[in-house]
Amino acid sequence: MGLLNERVAVITGAGGGIGRGVAHAFAREGAAVVIAEINEESGRQVEQELHGLGGRALFVRTDVTSKASIEAAVQATVAHFGSVDILVNNAFIPTPNVLLEEKTDEMLELTLTSALWAPWWAMRAVMPHMRERRWGRIVNFYSIDTETGAWLHADYNTAKSGIVGLTRSAASEWGRFNITVNAIAPTAMGATYFKLAAENPGFAERSAAARPLGRSGDPEQDIGPAVVFLSSEMSRFITGETLHVDGGLHLPGYNSRPPHVPAREY
């Protein structure tokens, strides 16, 4: 008997990185997992991986910039598995890493759509099903970047600030249906991490050293269990909370100013 036995979960962006790690952790705990992913190749690959673990899994091609696509994914989940108990809002679409004054309205619009509107749409789509069952778990993804004002991420930081308000509002209002809503701020060795490590010699070592625990996180072994906890009966009395899952990085924080940008300009 796993912690998520007989539960049905929708995980957006589960085709890779942290989303894939969470999907694996969920399958090992007995959940049926819907991989709501736009990339068909990676989505079907994760579906097969979960089947290989003996889990129940379904890939549903999902474009998180489309309300209709998100709603269709929820409908497909209910049609295939009979319910939806857990929603993990992980997916977002990155924009170019440029200074705030160089960010365009189109970049902000894309980030707000994928990182804030998408969770809004998904949460409202699953809520009636959770309300009917009088049980639900929603986990939204926040970011330490917002707390540090990370350079080159102004649009992302703006959207993730909204996630905190959305999480707390839903926790306040939907608790009457026995639906908990929490957020996590994870850092782990996902696609972005490996890209930065390949492009910047010494990045992996510096990243590990910046954390009090002295290592970088693994999507399945480090982030997955935290999401499992917030999605299970073990967290039944926790809602509206934001949990840092980053090896302690939030304690010292970090300075993300690019080296080519002077500290002062006149």
UniProtKB/TrEMBL annotation:
Pfam families: adh_short_C2 (PF13561)
GO molecular function, one term: 3-oxoacyl-[acyl-carrier-protein] reductase (NADPH) activity
Entry keyword set: Oxidoreductase
Enzyme Commission numbers on file: 1.1.1.100
Enzyme class: oxidoreductase
Membrane recorded as keyword: no
Gene3D superfamilies: NAD(P)-binding Rossmann-like Domain
Recorded family membership: Belongs to the short-chain dehydrogenases/reductases (SDR) family.
Alphabetical list of PANTHER family matching this protein: 3-OXOACYL-[ACYL-CARRIER-PROTEIN] REDUCTASE, CHLOROPLASTIC, SHORT-CHAIN DEHYDROGENASES/REDUCTASES FAMILY MEMBER
Protein name as it appears in the record: 3-oxoacyl-[acyl-carrier-protein] reductase FabG
Species this protein is from: Cupriavidus pinatubonensis
